[in-house]
Amino acid sequence: MAGPGAPAVSWQSEQLPAGFRMTARSTRLLPGARSAVTHLVFSDGLATVSVFVEQSEPGAAAPGRRGGTAHAAPSMTTLGPSVAFSTFVDGHKVIAIGEVPADTVRAIAGSLRAGEAAGGPRDGGHQ
């Protein structure tokens, strides 16, 4: 959980699938949440993929493990034409959802990297 003195995170993307670019970004504190959730939208002009990023709980154990800081393995779920992919990136839980091929949501989620806001080390990512 990020505290009030924690550095802000600016999410950047590297190696997006052909034609995709980040088209929107917002951050908000949802009811009952301990930290803010960042919502990123990627589009190729026809399809969109929503990505939700939240800080992982410190010391959270992966399902089926006792203690430790291991995270659950990435997972893919489909419901009709929608595909959701969940993984962990730079200490954050990342969930990508869209009506696109499974490889596309996986590639978009995997392209994200955390950098410091306002002039951080990874400002050169695609937007």
Task: Give the helix/strand layout.
Layout: E1 9-13, E2 21-28, E3 37-43, E4 48-55, E5 75-79, E6 82-89, E7 92-98, H1 102-111, E8 112-116
Antiparallel strand pairs: 1-8, 2-3, 3-4, 4-7, 5-6, 6-7
**Architecture in CATH?**
2-Layer Sandwich
Strand residue content: 35-45%
- How many separate domains? 1
Say how many strands there are.
8
Beginning-to-end CA distance, first to last residue: 26 Å
Overall mean pLDDT:
80
Helix/strand-derived class? mainly beta
Order of helices and strands: EEEEEEEHE
- Poorly predicted runs are 1-7, 61-69, 119-127
Approximately how much helix is present in the residues? under 10%
State the strand order across the main sheet.
2-3-4-7-6-5
Shape call: globular
Structure description:
With 127 residues, this protein is mainly beta. The chain has a single domain, classed as MucB/RseB, C-terminal domain (Phosphorylase Kinase, domain 1, 2-Layer Sandwich). Helix content is 8%, strand content 42%. The protein is built from one helix and eight strands; from the N terminus they run βββββββαβ. The longest helix is centred in the C-terminal third of the chain and has 10 residues, at 102-111. The model is unreliable at 1-7, 61-69 and 119-127 (pLDDT under 50).
